[in-house]
Design brief:
By secondary structure, the chain is α/β, with parallel strands linked by helices. The chain is built from seven helices and ten strands. The strands form two sheets. The protein has a six-stranded mixed sheet with strand order 6-7-8-3-9-10, with helices on both faces. Strands 2-1-4-5 form a four-stranded antiparallel sheet, covered by helices on one side. It is globular, with a radius of gyration of 17 Å.
Length: 225
Amino acid sequence: MAILTAENVTFQYKNKYQTVQAVKNASCSFEPGKCYAIVGKSGSGKTTFLSLLAGLEQPTSGRVIYQNEDTATRNCDRYRRDHVAVIYQNYNLFPRLTVEENALYPLRLKRMSKAESKERAHRELKAVGIDPSQWRRFPSQLSGGEQQRVAIARALAAGNAVVLADEPTGNLDVANSRQVLDILLRLAHEDGRCVIIITHDLEIAAQTDQVYVMRDGVLEEGMKL
């Protein structure tokens, strides 16, 4: 049963010269326990579509529905805090917070107790292979692959049912890309989360359960691999 659905979603904006339709009448559904890929060239609209699923933008027309409720009727900050975690290509870690503090950040927003939040953050950092000796380091002291794993640990610690990953391997070498993909697949298949990966890498997409293709704002029918 779908946890997140796009129904005839269109998003347009105006620039100096014209009105641009970045997403055109897109419809699809996403289920818990599965990992999805949305592939497409740069500028195809896939990152805009992810922003709509995350509640960072609202559709010009159509609806994004999370657990049978239109996200337009929800408090968007609360929607992301409680239900949807976003992982970015450039990691988006807080540079002046340590590894541990970055992992703790969403739990503080949830007002979780200090003891419980530390236990959860530590568990997820270990789960993605970040050693306790690294927890007091700052992001600049980590490799790109380590920073991305900290970003994933932060998303894991939040406990959100939907994980949206925007080009999560885009800045990584082959070995680190494989590690990150393995973690995202485990999130779906072992933890039962709904994981949606935006990527231009067809080798990454081929490892997921379902692939959608975005071309010039049009989301084409997915294919099962």
